[in-house]
Amino acid sequence: MVLNHRGRYLRKLMAAAAILVLAAVQPALARRAEPPPFRERLFFGGSFGLQIGTITNIELCPVAGFWVLPRLAVAAGPNYRFYKDPIGRTDIYGGRAYTEFLVVRNINSLIPLGLNLGIFVHFEDEVLSLDSEFWQIQAEGKRFTVNTMLAGAGISQPVGRRSSINMMVLWVLNEPDYKIYSTPEFRVTFIF
Asked: Predicted confidence band at 11 (pLDDT cuts at 50, 70, 90)?
């Protein structure tokens, strides 16, 4: 009879402790279950390229994006290039949209190397307007468009709570007749 009484007392004590722990942890669980506010899921950034010499290639590609899921981001933005070689010069402009999926958030959780790098895959669709005369093509107007798809992978190095430097290697999936990209394409982007 005494053991039964102690057993009931211990069960009641453990149930009360569990209720207190759940009550204390519930607000933290509720915060994690809710997605961050819209403005915290937005990000901005892009890349800047500069090559000066016999061939001059200046590229400016800003982007604005949104974290759809904690590991899935979509972004889009304009693209402008000034290109000059011994034959002539041209302006290339258009836009691009991409999707990135963060495969590994922190490689240190898999391999303890002391590195906080993330690993992601990247898929991009880009439409550019090219000058018909510079590219020596017969077109209906002075300009024509080229659609290029790129895919690859990269690493992301956080440099702040919401900012990172991303380094990636991309391959052209559909090879247009106009060699705008070298394969593979190495790119460094900044996100904030």
From this structure: low
Nearest to 124 by CA among 95, 149, 94, 159: 149
- Phi, psi of 138, deg, nearest 5: -85, 110
What CATH number does residue 42 fall under?
A: 2.40.160.20
Question: Are residues 144 and 128 located together in one domain of the fold?
Answer: yes
46 and 21: one domain?
Answer: no
Question: What type of residue is 169?
Answer: V
What integer pLDDT is reported at residue 74 of this predicted model? Answer: 98
pTM listed for this prediction: 0.78
The closest of 81, 89, 80, 86 to 53, measured between CA atoms, is: 86
Domain residues for the domain of 177 are: 36-191
pLDDT tens for each residue of 126-153: 999 999 999 888 878 899 999 999 999 9
Same domain, 137 and 76: yes
Structure-token pair, residue 119 = 């690993």
What is the Cα Rg of the chain in Å?
A: 26
Same domain, 25 and 69: no
pLDDT exceeding 90 applies to what percent of the chain?
61
Cβ-based neighbour number of residue 112 at 10 Å: 8
